[in-house]
């Protein structure tokens, strides 16, 4: 599992984040405390987007594909 902090400044950032997440085959969650949502769910991502201590969990081992994903999401990490 790969875990990285995430920060959204605007709702539009969350929308773009979900678009990017859906381009990759990995299972991903966004988590803050005891709240966890599917990172590919627009409604869930918007609902949790302003939470403190938000992190992205990618359920995969590090690979060139996960590095590509993280590079694509760099504006939100």
Give the termini distance in whole angstroms: 16 Å
Provide mean pLDDT, rounded: 97
Strand order of the largest sheet: 1-4-2-3
CATH C-level class: Alpha Beta
Report the strand count. 4
Could you give a short account of the major beta sheet? 4 strands, antiparallel
- Poorly predicted tracts of residues: none
Structural class: alpha+beta
Strand percentage: 15-25%
Shape, per Cα inertia axes = globular
Protein name: HPr family phosphocarrier protein
Organism: Mordavella massiliensis
What does this structure look like?
The protein has a single domain, classed as HPr-like (Histidine-containing Protein, Chain: A). The protein has helices at 11-21, 42-48, 64-72, and strands at 2-5, 28-32, 35-38, 55-58. A hairpin with a 2-residue loop joins β2 and β3. The model has no long low-confidence stretch (mean pLDDT 97). The chain contains three helices and four strands. With 77 residues, the chain is α+β, with helices and mostly antiparallel strands. Strands 1-4-2-3 form a four-stranded antiparallel sheet, covered by helices on one side.
């Amino acid at each position: 599992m790969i875990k990285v902090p995430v920060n959204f400044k605007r709702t539009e950032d969350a929308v773009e984040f979900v678009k990017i997440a859906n381009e990759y085959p990995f299972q991903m969650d966004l988590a803050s405390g005891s709240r966890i949502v599917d990172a590919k769910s627009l409604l869930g991502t918007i609902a949790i987007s302003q939470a403190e201590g938000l992190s992205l969990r990618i359920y995969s081992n590090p690979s060139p594909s996960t590095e590509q994903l993280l590079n694509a999401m760099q504006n939100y990490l």
